[in-house]
Fold this sequence. Notes:
The protein is mainly beta. The chain is 10% helix and 46% strand. The protein is built from three helices and 17 strands. The radius of gyration is 27 Å and the shape is globular.
Amino acid sequence: MQSVVSIFISTIKKPSQYLCVAASLVLLSACLPEEKEDKNPINSSGIEVDNASLALNGFWNGGFNQGDKLKLLIFNGDVYGLDEDEAFFGTVASSSATFNFDLLAYPLSHEDSVNNEYVADGIAVTYTIDDGRLFNYGQLEIAASFDTNNGLLGELNVINDASYSKNSSLSSLVGLWTTADYQLRIDGQGNYIIQDTTDSGCVSNGKINLIDSNNSLMALIITRKKCDDFNGSATGFAAINTDGELEFYSKMSSSLLFMTFMPPATAGIVETPEETTTEE
Length: 280
């Protein structure tokens, strides 16, 4: 079967008509939409994330130099981290068969272990983590070497906790989540408020949104007022960890906020009023 273009050309009798047809075809091709390539996400440094780095999305536990207090969240090339004395933010990218992390470590400016609330800010230390490799001995593990701009060096080992692959839903968040002094109330649309029961005046409002229901990580919007630190509006992430607790990760300029809440006894359960009957 001949195409429309070939049939049209076959009807042309004069050479001058070929020029008109050629010009028309050029104009027609210019009007056709270009095929767009699927692109990977862009990290916080404005760089497209490679597929190998995307495979690291998840939560990792371990530490530097055989420590065990470090927790990392890796998502779409960006890295959040919290250790005993500092918090981290940066990026990861692959190079051949290895991974390289560029992280800034900020000292903790507010540390409240009773309420599992940590804020980091101040003069940052640069961590350069090279030659990271991924191993699977029953659990996924990243092993790498590192050095810093203040002379510290050694090794990094973190193990994936497998919680990222769990499903997420807004209904699973509904209820009253708590710390020693904070109360976090979340409704079925992901809207929430955090109140300090010590009457300090510290209050947070915001919303949690789904990113992909096949994974545990959710998007976080938060606004804090009258708190000891990290006041203002910011974005970040939320997820239910392996212990059933709800974790917040957020960044505002160079400040980092980490919070963890204990689950409600009836998390995600909405009570239905009992039916009543009336006598006729």
